[in-house]
Amino acid sequence: MNAEPRIIEVRKNILKQNDIIARALRERFREVGVSVISLVSSPGAGKTAFLERTLASLRERCRVAALVGDLATENDAARLARSQAPVKQITTGTLCHLEAAMVQGALDAWDIGPLDFLFIENVGNLVCPSSYDLGEELRLILLSVTEGEDKPLKYPTIFNSADVAVITKIDLAAAVDFDDELAESNIHAVRPGMKVIRVSAKTGEGMDEYLEFLEQRRAAMRAPASA
Amino acid sequence: MNAEPRIIEVRKNILKQNDIIARALRERFREVGVSVISLVSSPGAGKTAFLERTLASLRERCRVAALVGDLATENDAARLARSQAPVKQITTGTLCHLEAAMVQGALDAWDIGPLDFLFIENVGNLVCPSSYDLGEELRLILLSVTEGEDKPLKYPTIFNSADVAVITKIDLAAAVDFDDELAESNIHAVRPGMKVIRVSAKTGEGMDEYLEFLEQRRAAMRAPASA
């Protein structure tokens, strides 16, 4: 009967420990001047295809790399490596999310100083990753048109933990009768004013606008503060 | 440094406690003669649409009901109620999976004796539900064609915890270049011989075969053992 308070206590300790590491990571990222962007979504929302296209486009004009989390297999790292950007896989075993310590471990012997952007692809999961800060500057939540418009209402916590919503697979919108207005109003019901970007990694639609957003944001974050 | 063994111990206790309740549930289901079938999948794989169609079809010839788990909202219960079958929502808050105790709680004041089938729709998640037995007779893992063929390799544990794989949204297979053979061989790489059913809840394709499978299985499970 007293098991529950003990579990909550242990969970709190894990999260507290994670926050400490995430804070140190964030400081390190800021010091070396790398923009760290993480991606969360349900499995199959198209994180890897979207990231592959992002890396391939950005590496023509800046220095990019990626960390990618999965329970098993290094398939995603292999897919992303096709972009020619440096990629490291984090295999989480049975763990359903990335933690800051895993990011720290993966970066251990990696000189991230020369990078402009580092992307972190989380495990496909709309629940657990929301509790774990990874020290990222920006968290993108991906939502594919095939998943239905109500995901923000059903998984509000993860939408709240993210900074930007990316609606993916928009080339399939008509085939699945996707109601874009409803999706956006559900996103804003959970997180008012959240920026919403629409892309198709397949056709490339929306990718330019998204990349421009990333670069503008990077420039703004790195502009010297005005007196 | 000694936090990890403690966490593992707590987790083991939770799972052990869950297994005890699940075993009691399974016994109760068997005694009253109800076939309990659970559905797991990633968010947006189409569990609710598939279940709505299942309930609407089955209730013409037998007594069906459903429990549906979600973090927030009662949207799914409302959708399923359109089938006219009795439906109860379990709202899990921040918990990313159903546990046997939640099923037990939801059934507390519910006379399930007259039922033929009880369906349990889990929270959309390909990781955590794999560890929690709900006392079900059959667990279906749904995989939509839009998620990609490699999901079984990336989430092997949940495929291993399930009895039947259901490939959903097959009406979209051509639009997303779904490689059915590859998907099946990935399923069988993780769980050799696993039954694979293909359906579209939208067009109804494959639903008859699936319903027939359920009814045959129910009949077989309830046939008096031969001497």
User: Any guess at the CATH architecture of chain A?
Assistant: 3-Layer(aba) Sandwich
Structural class of chain A: alpha/beta
Strand arrangement, major sheet of chain A: 3-2-4-1-5-6-7
Main sheet attributes: strand count, strand direction, barrel closure of chain A: 7 strands, parallel
Question: How many helices of chain A in DSSP terms?
Answer: 8
CATH homology group of chain A:
P-loop containing nucleotide triphosphate hydrolases
Count interface residues per chain for the largest interface.
Answer: A-B, 42 and 42 residues
Q: Beta-sheet strand percentage of chain A?
A: 15-25%
Question: Distance between termini of chain A?
Answer: 58 Å
Number of domains of chain A: 1
CATH top level assignment of chain A: Alpha Beta
| Radius of gyration of CA atoms of chain A, rounded to a whole number | 18 Å
Keywords:
Rossmann fold; about 230 residues; alpha/beta; 7 strands; seven-stranded parallel β-sheet; 8 helices; homodimer
Layout of SSEs?
Two copies of one chain form a homodimer.
Chain A: H1 3-32, E1 35-40, H2 47-58, E2 64-70, H3 75-81, E3 87-91, H4 100-106, E4 117-121, E5 138-144, H5 151-154, H6 156-161, E6 164-168, H7 180-190, E7 195-198, H8 207-222
Parallel strand pairs in A: 1-4, 1-5, 2-3, 2-4, 5-6, 6-7
Helix pairs in contact in A: 2-3
